[in-house]
Specification:
By secondary structure, the chain is α+β, with helices and mostly antiparallel strands. The chain has six helices and ten strands; from the N terminus they run ααβββββααββααβββ. The relative contact order is 0.18.
């Protein structure tokens, strides 16, 4: 009788044991959760927006306020949206103004100012070599422009938007966009990718393989 009574659970003891078991279990769960769970990355304040103008045969970059910048600068892990505004979807004189950047810089062994550069550009346009495939080294960016669809077989004309700002404001149908996350820190080339990687050919013609903006996508830690 006495032995049985010594092992009997009293209400007070049962309550205390329950609390102890719950506390022990909670601590164990917290310990395992803390060790096995990978803490989420610190969220960035907001994504970044830029505008990219591919032209024959280069790129111009604009920030979210449509102010031209030398390079796209973002932070690691930041969400980035690029709106691609092809120069050929703009007014003819605007397209030619961008093309003069290539003429003034020189390309493919031709000296700056060589009139053959603009001749080759106009030849490409006449042949229908009007699209670009915009990519960024080390990032999942592969965006094909829709110039032919916007031009409908016609050369750049006066009714087209006069500037990048006009094209954005009018929501020109030639604008295409891509959103991605900036990867590891560093400087990455913005390039016109090959339409046929095996042949090394693009969709913009003669100057395609020289259409590179070295280190123009900058990812800071």
């Amino acid at each position: 009788m006495m032995l049985r009574r010594s092992w009997r659970w009293r209400p007070g003891r049962r309550f205390a044991a329950t609390l102890l078991l719950a506390a022990t279990t909670g601590l164990a769960v917290l310990f395992l959760w803390g060790r096995g769970r990978v803490p989420p990355p610190t969220p960035r304040a907001a994504g970044r927006t830029f505008y990219v103008v591919p032209y024959h045969y280069g790129f111009a970059f604009y920030d979210q306020d449509l102010v031209e910048v030398a390079a796209i600068r973002v932070r690691t892990g930041e969400q980035v949206t690029l709106h691609i505004v092809p120069a050929l979807a703009l007014r003819r004189e605007t397209f030619l103004a961008y093309a003069r950047r290539t003429v003034q810089q020189g390309i493919a062994g031709l000296a700056p100012g060589d009139p053959r550069i603009q001749a080759r550009i106009l030849e490409d346009v006449a042949l229908g070599n009007v699209e670009h495939i915009v990519g960024i080294a080390g990032h999942p960016v592969y965006v094909t422009t829709r110039v032919a669809e916007a031009l409908r077989g016609r050369p750049p004309q006066t009714p087209a938007p006069a500037t990048v700002q006009d094209a954005v404001r009018q929501r020109a149908p030639a604008i295409v966009s891509v959103t991605f996350t900036a990867g590891r820190s560093g400087r990455f080339d913005v390039i016109c990718l090959d339409a046929d990687p095996l042949a090394g050919t693009g969709t913009c013609g003669w100057g395609h393989k020289w259409m590179i903006a070295p280190g123009a996508f900058v990812v800071e830690p």
